[in-house]
């Protein structure tokens, strides 16, 4: 599709203005993959299209479940059209099981410990300081979000997790944890909010195979997600080809979340 002005670029996507609608932007998913705050970087040709397909499948499922998201359409595999948002500088992580970085921060907890309801943690998006964990009190105190918005993110985050957990369970895949982000829908000149209203808080950014841990059959050794890349002692063409196949499998599996999607 035609693209407007380039607005921003990150490690895994480029954001463009929509060519005709100022209330929308276009996300172009890149083929890059990174780990260790960008210390490890590689390119996997075709990864962007797989990320776009997975994101479209996930957000279509969430929209149909009545969860407010920024997702509008996916006109091409590597592109998604979304509502323009003012993003909060937070990563919201929901954990069903204790593993990974959680165990490093809580060595007294056994791997596989189950959280019910899912545990919600917040991390400040700050590459320079390795995305430190931040408390709800600090979020409010620093003016990042209101107390009501923090509670909304917790509640909506758990709704998102539950929807995806159930979708994965139908394919005998365990959703271990999930990272999402939120943004305020930005009003355009002809869509100004009424006096006293607040911009809507939407599930935004992307949810793709870099966003979660998924274990087929509940077996960590069969993981399909980005952790395979993080865990690799060295990265060569064979490793990248293996990762591509896992990402392709996830795009295929998530298509079953919305089998009748256009």
Structural notes for this entry:
The protein has 2 domains: 6-85 and 235-255, Phosphorylase Kinase, domain 1, CATH 3.30.200.20; 87-220, D-amino Acid Aminotransferase, Chain A, domain 1. It is α+β, with helices and mostly antiparallel strands. Strands 8, 9, 10, 11, 12, 13 and 14 form a 7-stranded antiparallel sheet that branches. Strands 1-2-3-7-6 form a 5-stranded antiparallel sheet, with helices on one face. A two-stranded antiparallel sheet has the order 4-5. β1 and β2 (13-17) form a beta hairpin. Helix content is 29%, strand content 31%. α1 (47-64) runs parallel beside α6 (237-255).
Q: Give the C-level CATH assignment of the largest domain.
A: Alpha Beta
Could you say how many structural domains there are in total?
2
Output the helix-strand order: EEEEEHEEEEHEEHHEEEHH
Termini separation comes to 17 Å
Class by alpha and beta content? alpha+beta
Number of helices: 6
Shape type: globular
Features:
D-amino Acid Aminotransferase, Chain A, domain 1; 262 residues; Phosphorylase Kinase, domain 1; five-stranded antiparallel sheet; 31% strand; alpha+beta
Quick structural overview:
The protein has 262 residues and is α+β, with helices and mostly antiparallel strands.
